[in-house]
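Hi both,

Apologies for the delay on this - the queue was longer than expected. I finally got the 2-acetamido-2-deoxy-beta-D-glucopyranose-bound model through. Below you'll find the protein sequence and the ligand SMILES exactly as submitted, and right after that the structure tokens for the full complex including the ligand.
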Amino acid sequence: MGFLVLVKGFCILVCFFTFCFLSANSQNGGRNGATVEGFVFIDGNSAIGRIDSDFICATLDWWPPEKCDYGTCSWGHASLLNLDLNNKILLSAVKAFSPLKIRLGGTLQDKVIYEDHKQPCIPFSKSTSELFGFTKGCLPLSRWDELNTFFKRTGALVIFGLNALTGRSIRSDGSAVGAWDSSNAESLMRYTVGKGYSMYGWELGNELSGNGVGVRVSADQYASDTIALQNLVQEVYSNQQPKPLTIAPGGFFDVKWFKEFMAKTSKSVDVVTHHIYNLGPGVDEHLVDKILDPSNLDREANTFSELQSTLRSSTTSATAWVGESGGAYNSGRNLVTNAFVFSFWYLDQLGMASTYDTKTYCRQSLIGGNYGLLNTTTFVPNPDYYSALLWNRLMGINVLSTSFSGTKKIRAYAHCAKNSQGITLLLINLDNATTVQAKVAFQGSFTVTQKRKIHSNGKNIILLPGENKIGEMEREEYHLTAKDGDLHSQIMLLNGKILGLNSYGDIPPLEAVTVNSSDPIAVAPFSIVFAQIPDVVLPACK
Ligand SMILES: *[C@@H]1O[C@H](CO)[C@@H](O)[C@H](O)[C@H]1NC(C)=O
Ligand SMILES: *[C@@H]1O[C@H](CO)[C@@H](O)[C@H](O)[C@H]1NC(C)=O
Ligand SMILES: *[C@@H]1O[C@H](CO)[C@@H](O)[C@H](O)[C@H]1NC(C)=O
């Protein structure tokens, strides 16, 4: 039993042990009957990271209907400027998170003018000769009012991305010169405060860090602009506590650029945001292969790890967020980034980001493009919407060091539970044919609480040393599979039942199945399992 070596002599080890199989709830259970056993090892001594309790964030973008990629125009009416904010499904979908963070931004944000009655308020229009393919566009204050009514109704926490290219000139080599002109941002901020609209954070710029995407701003200049933003927030919100966060730079991680930026903003930035599009362009026909390849998924850990060590070695007090992440750039890919298969990538990203102490993770997008949590035309939730909601309901703030032995095709994460004193596991099976029977082992001491009086025979349990009550415990499991086993399906099953809206457009309840804790967790081929074990109390979760 090789795992004993891993947990060393001083540890207590529990295995949940039998050969039961949760076939009733596992749609794809063992297509060819193959089963492997494995162990989830959880170090319960201390947390390796802490996420915000409102870790889940999604974006709204500025793209007009004329935004097209590779011949398809996937944004419809999903822009901040034209989205139907009274849609009932949209309202329920956002409310369900209580709260959802929403980051407003994207490529065109740096070209947005906020209506200030000093210049005409003209919408974006397509123009191939212009930076990012569109002219400058304007946010009418009446629309800003509507958006804020929507945020208030849904309880969303809002992060607004400001127009960081204002006042600069752009050289032909893509470098922007000059300082940010904050006067237009100031007028929006003062209007917002005057109206009593609540802002969670003001973020400066979109994808201008490092080499930039189209345009770049030097770290030194960006640092002084961020200090200017923080001063502005302090001034405009002088009578308010807490004040909105100052957030920057909302771009791709580049170690040299970020290091310099952090050194020069050590007291002036609350959150450092970075963007992730690690699967390449949406036009790539091999996106699914990339998602199903564990070593490919692992690669993004380098970025998280480098950013974490850059933060740690800096004097900054800032924390890290993923400010925008859509997996595949140029609007994603239809029937991949809005289908079941994308939950493998998305939930793995949420798990991985958490282990590197990322506080918040913003998914591109809430709606719009081919990577929306909601369908762009019908507003009906895509599979990733439910994946995010389950994460939001089950994964607590303390992140536990977790590994899996048995097969490389299992991705394993664990947090302290959100609604109990126990833990929640997230297991993702990337294998198309093998059911994994996962037993759980804890490193370090723990206690088992006993809520239910149930007959117990201790035979199926190994607990070293001491007695145990595992046979008397139950856990709650949420098995996610694709309809008909089709990875490209936009319909997801929870414990074998379709997740869909009722006729009123309400988000369905997410109901668990109860499983005897002495059974291993059966993770069917191409499935995702959240398992909450309410009665195991680890030191890290006290
Ligand atoms: C949105 O839903 C409709 C109806 O189910 C479907 O035909 C369409 O393909 C979906 N759109 C996207 C972009 O997924
Ligand atoms: C499972 O994946 C393997 C490797 O990619 C492939 O060769 C095999 O045909 C697949 N089997 C099924 C049942 O889809
Ligand atoms: C769990 O399974 C064990 C062994 O089959 C049994 O003794 C025990 O009563 C079961 N516990 C519950 C809560 O059903």
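Main takeaway for now: Residues 219-236 form the longest helix (18 residues).

I'll put the files on the shared drive as well.

H.
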